[in-house]
Amino acid sequence: MAERVAIILAAGISSRMNTNLPKVLHEVCGRPMLAYVLDACRQVGTSKIYVVVGYGAEQVEERFAGSKDIIWVKQDQQQGTAHAVLCCKEHLKDFDGQTLILCGDGPLIRAEMFRTVIECYEAGQSAAALATTILDDPTGYGRIVRDAYGNIKGIVEHNDCTKDQLSIKEVNPSYYLFNNKILFEALEKVKPDNVRHEYYLTDALSIIIATGHKVVAVTAVRPEEAVGVNSRAELTQAGKIMQRRIQQKLMDNGVTIVDPVNTWVDARADIGQDTVIEPFTYIHGQVKIGQNCRVGPFAYLRSGTLLGDDVVLGVFTEIKNSTLADGVRARHLSYLGDASVGRNVNIGAGTITANFDGQKICRTDIGNDCYIGSGAMLIAPLSLRDGSHIKPGIVVSQDEVDKTENGN
Fold first, then answer.
1. The model's pTM
2. With helix as H, strand as E and coil as C, how does the chain read?
């Protein structure tokens, strides 16, 4: 089996997004767009991933600093997609394998699509393969031009299309697989002969076809997967599609989401079987929820939250960076921040942990089988032993607990 690498194009500046943040770092359901693209590459067996960066390169590299399979490649001037790929030449000039090429602003990509492209590429012993899609409104996309037998003749960018070509609905969402050596031979011949005077990667495909090599184009991309993000509106659209995917996967795994439209779940969340998520619940960050829990309505779970099994969180309850063991109940208007709560604890309505003293964040530790009355204010740092009973409406500090335990 041939070795496979990937090149991800992530150097562009998004003027339409009106942002100082590199486009590929904008988040979709809690993760940077680039993270989804990296995942898809890894799932189809890439040994190395070359990420071409330009604007905000330092920020992008810092965000993914722990990824050992990434090689960062700098594109100092954005002169088109073919130029971006050529920036990887020194790394890949001796590589004799398969090269995937895709864009870093396409978070809706699925690895299954690439597997289809790889199968077609290998079955036909092709020099290149690309995935296409059919769009009712193909505006802005390069059109797939085929001959009378259905073979691909080339790709024409939207701005260079004739009137007849503009009516073509089969488009190029920019998902490619190349024989690496043939790719770089073709790239050397690409000229900026277009209205934007840029070096187009699509021209490399035309050159490969013209030199007699086989290129296949397979309609393997769902219309939603073709959505690239070039504006805030498209970012929102991608987020909605991704949210539906996240929730569908959870429901397939045995989670009940009562009202998916009015629920938001982070891509990093892990939710156990037979848990019920009530409407207007917002789950953000790395959150893990056990089995047979009930969360919401109007609950807010923040990053670092870990719920055991059979936990009930009710209306307007917020949990942040806290661990709640099996059987905890916090049904109404409570805030638990930076806390550890033992088994079978009842948290009364309106109870909060005061975890920030103005300078530092402190923790609250609550033992097993405790009763915390309504309206209690727990001042961190605080540790309550097993079986503690806190009366409603009182302020509890460690000094007060120590005095009580010492009989004062």
1. 0.91
2. CCCEEEEEEECCCCHHHCCCCCHHHCEECCEEHHHHHHHHHHHCCCCEEEEEEECEHHHHHHHCCCCCCEEEEECCCCCCHHHHHHCCHHHHCCCCCEEEEEECCCCCCCHHHHHHHHHHHHHCCCCEEEEEEECCCCCCCEEEEECCCCCEEEEECHHHCCHHHHCCCEEEEEEEEEEHHHHHHHHCCCCCCCCCCCCCHHHHHHHHHHCCCCEEEEECCCHHHHCCCCCHHHHHHHHHHHHHHHHHHHHHCCCEECCHHHCEECCCCEECCCCEECCCCEECCCCEECCCCEECCCCEECCCCEECCCCEEEECCEEECCEECCCCEEEECCEEECEEECCCCEECCCCEEECECCCCECCEEECCCCEECCCCEEECCEEECCCCEECCCCEECHHHHHHHHCCC
Please pick, among 91, 158, 213, 332, the residue that the annotation labels catalytic.
332
Cα separation, 269 vs 283, in Å, equals: 7
- Beta-carbon contacts of 403 under 8 Å, excluding residues fewer than 6 positions away, are none
- Whether 332 sits among the annotated catalytic residues: the reply is yes
Rg (CA), the chain: 27
Question: Could you read off the pLDDT of 23-81 as tens digits, one per residue?
Answer: 999 999 999 999 999 999 999 999 999 999 998 999 999 999 989 999 999 998 888 89
**Rounded to an integer, what distance in angstroms lies between the CA atom of residue 32 and that of residue 25?**
5
Name residues of the chain where pLDDT drops below 50.
none
What structural domains and CATH numbers belong to the chain? Answer: 4-226 (3.90.550.10), 249-405 (2.160.10.10)
321-346 per-position pLDDT tens digit? 999 999 999 999 999 999 999 999 99
Nearest residue to 158 via CA among 122, 196, 103: 196
